[in-house]
Design goal:
heterodimer; A: 591 residues; alpha/beta; Rossmann fold; two-stranded antiparallel ribbon; 23 helices; 7% strand; elongated; B: 71 residues; mainly beta; SH3 type barrels; five-stranded antiparallel beta sheet; 14% helix; 38% strand
Chain lengths: 591, 71
């Protein structure tokens, strides 16, 4: 039998040591990976964060070595996509496997460890989360465990760097191997199941001591947060607090700090500076510092208007992710979400979608069926505004009336319910019943959370700025050269006739293709009526996801499905936006 | 009786369970003693404590798990 098919084929140099990092889902592999390699990966306290694989060069190791973060799996029987990836990595061989074990859940983790040992590759065990285990009254004798497993066992608290130095010391002793790994494990693994569980029972009996402990505050909170009462009101409270934090905090930072700086300091200075070179009133002057002046908008829009909300949202999201609270909301919502064709667990990609649709669509890989994945990705693309767009909504709608904001978000939820129900009936296939491990509720580690927020904000600053800048430059040229009038005339049957917006709003629709917030921001300076603002916001909400999202959709779901999702959002945007405009106008005309 | 029929905070021993690989991986096996921690509304899952961890099990699956109550 050829056991090297489907290999991910990671090529390493002749003298480079290859380490695989493996373990059950949500045991802290990605944290160990970041700490050992310095490669920034986003970890979270729930299963299935790592869906592809990442590799990185190991720091602080005297020899050359690379580490591969293999997706977490419960077994090696190749029954799911993640397990197939894991199995193929093992078959490809390595100089050593670092297997991360969760000390709070030794039995189940040993099931994986013993399966892995069958492959005859040197092993190093990392017994992670020993601090949480101790709080729960689980004491594990790591020396006895090392004897049983016949391999080094290093107790660690990876998020706080405890034990990592010892891990590196053990890794130094690993040598280069020439041996081929070729092992038809799957069949034997199934046959051996009974004896394996007996063996696990024996080891656990020997190395683990349970002490009765009064449940800690977080444990009690973890318990009540998954009861319908008071869990559901608690979830609503958390949501309201997060919204208040992001909306209120963002508005404060923007109003007190950033906008005065842009309007009172930056804009006059820039205008004066440009005025020193170029005559006021010329086209070139207007493109740079006029109404749509690129040098003004490129600071005002992304930094003064959007950045405060992005930062605050990612602070809230990162804390929630690392606390292990999100899957609890998924459990509470499972009954309701099932009606729109998704499992409770898929609430996580939806919440991520309020940050950015790209990680949400990638994260939907954790869904167990293709149908569910398509539903999650479609609904996120259609009706979940990303933070940048949300920020733009806060500015456009929140300044008008808080009820308009509530209205647009109500519309977004309604669209998800209707869209989900339709897709659930339309798409073939099924949605698997929920079977999900609920993570321990943990107090998030400040350093890790700060690191995550940094990665995400940096990502916004780096990835978003180039399309944003090009979009703004394009807008400035069109608006200031008068080209906008031609475009307005061309789009006017739709924009003015059907949607009831002024002709210039066509600009927002054109820019919205590039980035979602650009479908909203140009509306700010147009002196719109309340109805026009609401219509504009509705169109922007459902309108095409940005170019990067379209690229991800096509990459993940092939051209046809990707374009179908994008096309549907476009049609929905014009239909719903126009329907609102026409209905309100009709009602007010007969009143 | 089925796991879904067990009341909250009651314990039971699993006697028979459907052939779903993930169930075993999550620590649910024959002869294991589990406690029901909560039942979710609208046909949602039951939450079962296995060892120190909690697992959410959909109604459909929970109904197929045969158990013996041990309170």
């Amino acid at each position: 039998m050829d056991c090297h098919n489907k290999s991910p084929e990671v090529q390493v140099g002749k003298d480079t040591l290859k380490f695989l990092l493996m373990g059950n889902p949500n045991v802290g592999k990605s944290v160990v990976f970041s700490k050992l390699t310095g490669v920034e990966v986003l970890a979270a306290n729930y299963t299935g964060t790592t869906v592809g694989y990442t590799k990185g060069k190991i720091r602080n190791l005297k020899k050359e070595g690379i580490l591969i973060d293999v997706p977490g799996t419960y077994g090696l029987e190749a029954t799911s996509e993640a397990e197939e990836v894991a199995v193929s990595f093992v078959k490809e061989g390595a100089d050593a496997i670092i297997c991360v074990l969760d000390a709070t859940n030794l039995e189940r983790n040993l099931n994986f460890a013993l399966q892995l040992k069958k492959f005859d590759i040197p092993m190093i065990f990392v017994l992670n989360l020993v601090d949480v285990a101790e709080q729960q009254g689980v004491i594990i004798d790591s020396e006895a465990l090392a004897k049983e497993l016949d391999a080094p066992v290093i107790p660690t608290v990876a998020v706080r760097n405890v034990g990592l130095r010892e891990l590196i010391t053990v890794m130094e002793k690993v040598g280069k191997r020439q041996k081929e790994v070729c092992y038809t494990a799957e069949k034997e693994l199934v046959e051996e199941e009974e004896t394996r569980w007996k063996e696990i029972g024996r080891i656990v009996e020997k190395v683990q001591t349970l002490v009765e402990r009064e449940p800690s505050f977080t444990e009690k909170l973890g318990y009540v947060s998954m009861q319908p009462w008071p869990g559901i009101p608690l979830a609503i409270l958390v949501l309201v607090l997060v919204l208040g934090f992001v909306v209120g905090g963002g508005k404060a930072i923007r109003g007190v700090l950033l906008l005065p700086f842009v309007y009172n300091v930056y804009e006059p200075a820039m205008t004066a500076f440009i005025g020193g070179f170029i005559t006021e009133g010329t086209i070139f002057y207007n493109v740079l510092v006029g109404d749509y002046g690129v040098l003004i908008k490129i600071i005002e829009w992304p930094f003064a208007l959007v950045l405060p909300y992005i930062t605050l949202f990612y602070i809230a999201l990162s804390i929630l992710e690392d606390s292990g609270y999100l899957p609890r909301i998924g459990v509470l919502m499972d009954g309701a979400l099932r009606k729109i064709g998704v499992q409770g667990g898929s609430i996580v990609p939806f919440i991520m979608g309020y940050g950015c649709a790209i990680p949400a669509i990638l994260g939907s890989k954790a869904a167990t069926t293709h149908k569910e994945r398509v539903i999650v990705a479609s609904l996120v693309s259609l009706a979940v505004p990303c933070t940048a767009q949300t920020a733009a909504f806060f500015v456009l709608l929140g300044d008008e009336s808080i009820w308009m904001l509530v209205g647009v978000y109500g519309l977004s939820i309604l669209a998800m319910i209707i869209g989900g129900s339709v897709l659930n009936r339309m798409l073939p296939g099924k949605v698997d019943p929920m079977l999900l491990e609920i993570p321990n509720l943990l107090k998030p580690d400040v350093k890790t959370v700060v690191q995550k927020i940094k990665i995400r904000v940096k990502h916004y600053l780096v990835e978003a700025q180039i399309p944003m800048a090009l979009g703004i430059l394009f807008a400035a040229i069109i608006a200031e050269t008068g080209l906008i009038h031609g475009i307005s005339d061309f789009l006017s049957p739709v924009v003015t006739g059907w949607l009831g917006l002024p002709g210039e709003a066509g600009l927002a629709l054109m820019l919205g293709i590039v980035r979602r917030e650009l479908a909203v921001l140009p509306l700010l300076d147009m002196n719109l009526t309340s109805l026009q603002i609401f219509t504009g916001a509705t169109v922007a909400l459902f309108y095409l996801p940005c170019l990067s999202v379209l690229a991800i959709l096509i990459k993940e779901f092939k051209l046809k499905t990707g374009l179908a999702i994008a096309g549907t959002t476009l049609v929905a945007a014009f239909l719903i936006g126009g329907a609102i405009n026409q209905t309100v106008r009709f009602i007010s005309s007969i009143l | 009786m089925s796991l879904y029929a067990i009341k909250k905070e009651h314990r039971c021993i699993i006697e028979n369970l459907p052939k779903i690989g993930l169930l075993k991986s999550l620590g649910l096996r024959e002869g294991i003693n589990v406690a029901i921690k909560s039942k979710q509304p609208m046909g949602g899952p039951v939450i079962v404590q296995v060892g120190r961890r909690c697992v959410a099990i959909a109604q459909d699956i929970a109904k197929d798990i045969q158990v013996r109550e041990v309170n």
